[in-house]
Specification:
The complex is a heterodimer of chains A (104) and B (88).
Chain A (H helix, E strand, L loop, with lengths): L1 H26 L3 H27 L3 H30 L5 H6 L3
Chain B lengths: L1 H25 L3 H25 L5 H25 L4
Classes of the chains: A mainly alpha (104), B mainly alpha (88).
């Protein structure tokens, strides 16, 4: 019973963070602001979702593998965002409106 | 109760992944598409893990591990290609 409530809370907060990331990816105007929206909220959403699965499964070897995926996502997702941002910054990828006003 | 919660979670997560696919289709620059593919890869990793756990098929967890690694390596490779024009 208490396990069900914990799983419900974790999945709901995970869906909330995934929804924030998706709305930011669709609505924001720039590469860097889109990256700012998606990286942090997506990492936290994946972490909470996998934590809900760990609570669902209990003490098991499967929980160890889920923990491995969680740690891997927590390490690699910010690194990937950093490398994308470095590539976009070096290639001067701004949005079209800023280019028209000559602020680049 | 937990099974139905995880089923609803799977459905809503796949809807979010399809919404993110719009940015990969219509992104003005290449970096937008790379960001979108990175987000979709994270979502699909969680999706594979959820389906593997609540259908009691424990072998598919390994698929989720490899999918996370493949998404990371694909992001790194495409970003290096954008930045330098070559991968290595």
């Amino acid at each position: 019973m208490i396990k069900d409530i914990i799983i419900l809370l974790l999945t709901l907060s995970s869906l909330f963070f995934f929804m924030v990331g998706t709305v930011g990816l669709i609505r924001l105007p720039d590469v860097f602001s889109r990256m700012h929206a998606t990286t942090k909220s997506d990492t936290l959403g994946a972490g909470l979702g996998l934590l809900a699965l760990i609570v669902y499964k209990g003490l098991d070897p499967v929980s160890l593998k889920l923990m491995l995926i969680l740690v891997f996502i927590f390490i690699t997702n910010p690194v990937a965002a950093h490398i994308i941002a470095k590539a976009a910054y070096h290639k001067k990828m701004r949005n079209q409106k800023e280019d028209d006003h000559g602020t680049v | 109760m937990s099974t139905s919660v995880l089923t609803a979670y799977t459905i809503i997560l796949s809807i979010f992944a399809f919404i993110c696919l719009y940015r990969a289709y219509a992104g003005p620059t290449t970096a937008d598409r790379v960001v979108s593919i990175n987000v979709i890869s994270t979502k699909v990793t969680v999706l594979i893990a959820v389906i593997a756990v609540f259908t009691e098929q424990n072998e598919f967890i390994d698929v989720a591990v490899i999918y996370a690694m493949m998404g990371f390596i694909a992001t790194i490779a495409v970003s290096k290609y954008i930045e330098k024009g070559k991968i290595y």
